[in-house]
Amino acid sequence: MTAAPTRSGVLYLRLARSDVALFRFLLEAWEGAALFTSLGADAQGRETLLLRFAPDMRAEVMAFLAAARTEFVLELLPTTAQAQA
Question: What pTM was computed for the model?
Answer without folding.
Answer: 0.83
